Amino acid sequence: KRTIVWFRKDLRLHDNPALWEAANEGIVIPVFIWSEEDRLAYAASEASAWWLYHSLKQLETDLSQNGVQLIIKQGPEFDAIVDVMEQVGAESIYFNERYEPTERDRQMRIVGQLSSIGMDVRTFHGNLLFSPELLNKQGEPYKVFTSFWKRGLQEVVDRPLPIPELQGVENDISSVAIDALGLPTDLGTLQKYWQPGERAGTEQWAFFADDGMLHYKKERDLIAKGTSSRLSPYLAAGNSSARTIWHAAKRINEETRDVTAHQSIEAFLKQLMWREFAYHQLIHFPTMTDQPLRKQFNDFPWIGTPEQYNLWKEGKTGYPLVDAGMRELRETGMMHNRVRMVAASFLVKHLLIPWQEGYAWFQHALVDFDTANNATGWQWVTGCGIDAAPYFRIFNPYLQSEKFDPNGSYIKQWVPELANLPAKYIHKPFEAPEDILQEAGIQLGETYPYPIVDHATARKRALHAYDTIKGRS
Ligand code: FAD
To answer: By the 8 A CB rule, do 405 and 223 touch?
Structure first.
């Protein structure tokens, strides 16, 4: 049997159900298709496009080392698949599902088209722990994470799959070079911080499993220490498999007697389950990428200005923790989860700028951009999502900063103009006496901005704005 395996956001060989199944049945013809829709989608997410370029390079190498050539086609999927199918005499096509609304539409269309010409089309769940379509006992989507978590624990049953033995076939099908796809090969300073691809993802997991995961519960919020896994971009591109990580973490949990490690591993598994919950929401509420799940937020009186939006993006708000996060994002394509929450909340509540604008900037700049997680994150912070933080709970960026970056090392790393300020003043430079500022080489309003909004005033304004929509349905 000859089967086309269509690679999408599952750019890896291990635990890849579509690849595994095809390989076990015979000859595999791996294909990646770059359609106009892909080009448009990736145009909005530059950092992910850079990640894609390098992941594809790695996949191409890994496949060829396993004796199989990755075929890359441009143009509409149907034409590309039919072209390959005719040239190699394939009768079946397997692929792992994607869950974003536009991707689901594409999938449905393509499955219909290919089935109508007699092709055997099979789809698999390769990127999540289980199918996100599940419903609760009342036949409804889960709306509370804790119930979803309990149910989810019963659903993670399939064991991860190893890398299959691959058997290719001699062919002279024309294939486009990855370099010809127009993806960014170098992007700012990203290459300084990341090595995309399956191998690096596996190494990153091993590194985290060995140490960080065992202290995760206590240390994950210590921003400067950075003890979270940093696996998100690998998961987003499918270089890593959530299922492989889940089961490996479970095994470590079974082997250890350390209570701190148990608690930490459970806390980490919960984060992986949040990813599942995000996809569960996206499947059931596909409009959530740009529409609030709590409809009254459609009437929210947003009044922030484009100038403020730009200052936020540039990390020039005068709030050191927010600025550090936004600059880390620009420089590395990543931002710690705690800082994401604070920076996002600042945009939505302190500046009263619509969360969709924040979503768009994160989409553009994050190496781990993921439609489901980004939408869930923004709706959670705004208070307009499922199981979200209530709107009136407004993060105080100063307190967050004092608590999670107590000596200011994270701030000093990303906002170097504050590097010489004593820890006592690092969270609120405007409270530092003039001589201390001078000694630290800071001239407020010149070398570092005053806060663009006053915290207490902004807080009051946000609550007042919320009052205008509170009672509405
Ligand atoms: P860890 O703490 O090590 O967690 C392990 C894995 O669990 C992560 O890699 C991720 O896949 C998943 N995870 C962790 N936290 C969450 C969460 N809150 N929701 C869903 N899954 C989670 N995550 C993305 O992957 N892509 C995004 O585009 C994204 N946008 C976000 C936007 C906002 C406003 C907020 C508040 C959060 C967003 N997150 C997003 C969630 C979270 O910030 C990142 O997953 C996390 O910071 C990645 O770092 P890590 O891999 O070290 O995470």
So the answer is: yes
Distance 468 CA to ligand 1 centre (A): 31
What number does the ligand 1 atom closest to the CA of 344 have?
Answer: 34
ipTM of the complex: 0.99
Ligand 1 centre to CA of 336 (Å) is: 8
Cα R_g (the chain), whole angstroms = 24
Residue in 45, 266, 337 to alter for ligand 1 test, most ligand atoms within 8 A of Cβ: 337
Q: 368 CB less than 6 Å from ligand 1?
A: yes
Nearest CA to ligand 1 atom 45: 232
One digit per residue, pLDDT tens: the chain, 473 residues? 999 999 999 999 999 999 999 999 999 999 999 999 999 999 999 999 999 999 999 999 999 999 999 999 999 999 999 999 999 999 999 999 999 999 999 999 999 999 999 999 999 999 999 999 999 999 999 999 999 999 999 999 888 999 999 998 887 888 999 999 999 999 999 999 999 999 999 999 999 999 999 999 999 999 998 789 999 999 999 999 999 999 999 999 999 999 999 999 999 999 999 999 999 999 999 999 999 999 999 999 999 999 999 999 999 999 999 999 999 999 999 999 999 999 999 999 999 999 999 999 999 999 999 999 999 999 999 999 988 778 888 999 999 999 999 999 999 999 999 999 999 999 999 999 999 999 999 999 999 999 999 999 999 999 999 999 987 76
Domains of the chain in start order, with CATH, are: 2-127 (3.40.50.620), 128-159+198-284 (1.25.40.80), 295-467 (1.10.579.10)
What amino acid occupies position 209?
A: A
Task: Compute the half-sphere exposure of residue 183: CA atoms within 13 Å on the CB side of its CA.
Answer: 24
Q: Read out DSSP for 176-235? A: --GGGG---SS-TTHHHH---SHHHHHHHHHHHHHTGGGGHHHHTT-TTT--S---HHHH
Stated pTM of the model: 0.97
CA 363 to ligand 1 centroid distance, Å:
13
Which residue's CA is the closest to the ligand 1 atom numbered 23? 373
